[in-house]
Amino acid sequence: MRIAQNLMAAGVVLFSAAVMVQAVQVGARWVEGQPGPGFFPFWLGGLLFLCGAIILARAALAHDAANGHFFEKRTGMESVVKVLLTATGMLALTYFIGFRTASVLYLFVYLRFIGKHKWTTTIALSLLIPITGYVVFERILQILLPRGIYSGIIPLVD
After folding, report:
1. Distance from C-alpha of 158 to C-alpha of 147, rounded to nearest angstrom
2. Phi, psi dihedrals of residue 30, rounded to the nearest 5°
3. Which residue, among 4, 1, 9, 5, has the nearest Cα to 70 in the 3D structure?
4. 52-62 pLDDT, tens per residue?
5. Of the spans 32-41, 124-133, 137-146, which averages the highest pLDDT?
6. Exposed (0-12), middle (13-18) or buried (19+): which is 42, by Cβ within 10 Å?
7. What is the pTM of this model?
8. Residue 15: exposed, middle, or buried by beta-carbon count in 10 A (0-12, 13-18, 19+)?
9. Cα 58 to Cα 53, 63, 64, distances in angstroms
10. In the chain, what percentage of residues exceed pLDDT 70?
11. What's the farthest any 2 CA atoms get from each other in the chain?
């Protein structure tokens, strides 16, 4: 497990360094009373870099011996497969029926059948999160979310 943790932390550090370099190239300074286009990505990259460096430092200072197993039990592998399958299903559904409808279905399946949450919690979150995303992105920020190839054929789907 330690090897995977170290590799992931190193990947986070490298990714965040690349984000910071790109942000500087775009313009990460405060310009004419407002932040430049790379200002927020630069600082978010810096925070991400710090988090990755902390994980690497903690792993280097740890003295416990790794047991050599990536997953402790079979349930660890089952959890990874469940997450992978539901995420793949979300991507496929987004292509066909659009982001809004796919996110409702994804959250419902994930919360109820994988997370084992109560029906009321599952239904509430499965509706509130996509509705909030719709309001924030499509109404306030005016960023269109993916519609799907069947959204024109079946207008009630998305």
Report:
1. 7
2. -85, 120
3. 1
4. 999 989 888 87
5. 124-133
6. buried
7. 0.59
8. middle
9. 9, 10, 12
10. 87
11. 60
Return the closest-CA partner of residue 116 out of 108, 126, 127.
108
* Of residues 99, 78, 90, the one with CA closest to residue 150: 99
Report the C-alpha gap between 34 and 143 in whole angstroms: 22
| Helix extents (H) in the chain | 2-26, 39-61, 74-97, 99-109, 119-134
Q: Which amino acid does the sequence have at 82?
A: K
Enter the tokens of residue 109: 């399946």
The string of pLDDT tens digits covering residues 60-81 is 887 665 555 666 677 778 888 8
pLDDT of amino acid 49: 96
What contacts 129, CB < 8 A, 6 or more positions away? 103, 107
Pick from 135, 90, 95: nearest CA to 111 = 90
Residue in the structure block whose two tokens are 């982001």:
99
Q: What pLDDT shows up at residue 158?
A: 43
Give pLDDT, residue 108. Answer: 96
Residue 65 Ramachandran class (φ > 0 left, ψ -120 to 50 alpha, else beta)? beta
